[in-house]
Amino acid sequence: MSATPLRKTAEARTTAPAANSAMPAMALYEQIKAFITHKIRDGSWVAGHRLPSESELVAQFGVARMTVNRALRDLVEQGRIVRVAGVGSFVAEDKPQSTLLQIANIASEIRARGHDYRCEFLVAERIAASPDVAAWLDLRPGESAFHTVCLHLENDVPVQLEDRYVNPRVVPDFLEQDFSTIPPSEYLVRNVPFDQIEHVVDAVLPTAEQAERLDMPPTDPCLLLTRRTWTRTVPVTMVRCLHPASRYRLGSRFRADGKPSIG
Predict the structure, then answer these.
(1) How far apart are CA 156 and CA 116, in angstroms?
(2) pLDDT tens profile 125-141
(3) What confidence category does residue 87 fall into, taking pLDDT thresholds of 50, 70 and 90?
(4) In a domain, 79, yes or no
(5) What's the Cα-to-Cα distance from 19 to each of 9, 10, 13, 205, rounded to whole Å?
(6) Which domain holds residue 184?
(7) For residues 240 and 162, what is the distance between their CA atoms, to the nearest angstrom?
């Protein structure tokens, strides 16, 4: 009489693995990525924390070194970790993010993160407007325009190269300001009311000169934010802000009614 229940038990034991096999198992390298990502997200491993070595991860997960290496390469590409040859792997700092729905004050953004801000003022000049600049600012070609170039640094690392043109008809005393105490963008926001903003973002490669100023390889991509502002339909400024893509990102959060979500 006991043969029947024993046979049923044996059948259950042999059919259970078949049912489970229908569920795809997470690849080994994905398990390692998930483990590291969880440690970062829950705050166990903060920015700058040194990860276990490849050998330690191989021993911990019982996998081949190439599996660990693939997981770490993926995490580098995702910007979650950085690897230093001969030293190890470390949790990366979050890329600074600037809003697209308002005119951001980069100095305030950097200081709000508890980092040091510095601005190198490179160019301040009156120029004869080229056809392009004249079109941007609604001037006649050859008419005077103001031009400034600034380099913004976070903890002494360049994060933005700002190339700006300003309409003298709207801001005639622009070049008379002391931009060592207040950056051009902050001065304009404080002193010139604007009612329209246009933002366009492109992925570009820097010129050799731009790459040198941003202390980056000329083969690395950049994010180029081009901004124009108007007051009562009159153009005020056109500025191109170049960011190394590996150090900066642009994004927005807004409400369903279209108003920016601030604070």
Answers:
(1) 8
(2) 999 999 999 999 999 99
(3) confident
(4) yes
(5) 16, 15, 11, 52
(6) 97-251
(7) 6
